[in-house]
Design brief:
Helix content: 10-25%
Distance between the termini: 11 Å
Largest sheet: 6 strands, mixed
CATH topology: Rossmann fold
CATH architecture: 3-Layer(aba) Sandwich
Length: 209
């Protein structure tokens, strides 16, 4: 797989990049024809800071109390909260940064000590990849339960433009990937054509088959 990696840079900042590997991949929700490697943005402080600066420009007009970080975006979220607190409508404001826990049935929950960061708060949801929107919808259900108000959604990569009436602001979109597609597992044309799955993928990375 690694010999097929193609690096692409963000349109607005060539210091931000991701790797893409064409192939046949299975996620929890669908089958896709690209693995999108966002490791550097999620682990490198320099690239995370650059990425946060770009995203912060998209959210300068959104008042935010709390950023919920999903799929390993905590470093990016920390830099984003710092950038937002220095500029725009949030200037000088302290912004909370939390990550939900997953229970035994894969529901997102918050413990008693962090719920106060959600109740009645304006929330920015930060996710690494939005291919179908199912993870975001699950987070929205969680927010509704804890009486939080979703005001913005940010992503490293997104194949959807909006969800629940809110535009998804992403560093990279499916338009940056040539002929990107995702399919329900039982409708995947690659499976129907006998093309084997290269790897199982999730927010942590990939496992070759």
């Amino acid at each position: 797989m690694e010999d097929r990696v193609q690096n692409i840079t963000a349109k607005k900042n060539n210091r931000i990049s991701i790797g893409i590997i064409p192939g046949h991949y299975a996620t929890n929700h669908s089958h896709v024809n690209y693995y999108v490697d966002m490791t550097s943005i999620k682990t490198s402080t320099k690239m995370a800071k650059e990425s946060a600066a770009e995203l912060s420009r998209e959210f300068a007009g959104n008042y935010v109390d709390t950023i919920i970080c999903l799929e390993g975006t905590e470093i990016l979220g920390a830099f984003l909260s710092e950038a937002l607190s220095q500029n725009g409508i949030n200037q000088g404001k302290d912004i909370n940064l939390i990550t939900p826990e997953l229970n035994a049935v894969n529901q997102m929950i918050f413990r008693d000590n962090t719920q106060k960061k959600i109740w009645g708060k304006k929330v920015l949801l930060l996710i690494s990849s939005a291919s179908t929107g199912k993870s975001i919808n699950r987070a929205i259900d969680c927010l509704q339960y804890y009486s939080g108000e979703l005001v913005a959604v940010g992503a490293i990569f997104s194949a959807i433009e909006q969800i629940a009436g809110i535009e998804v602001k992403a560093l990279f979109t499916d338009k940056d990937l040539p002929h990107y597609d995702n399919f329900l597992a039982n409708e995947c044309p690659m499976c129907k054509n006998g093309i084997k799955v290269d790897a199982l993928i999730n927010s942590f990375g990939y496992s070759k088959l």
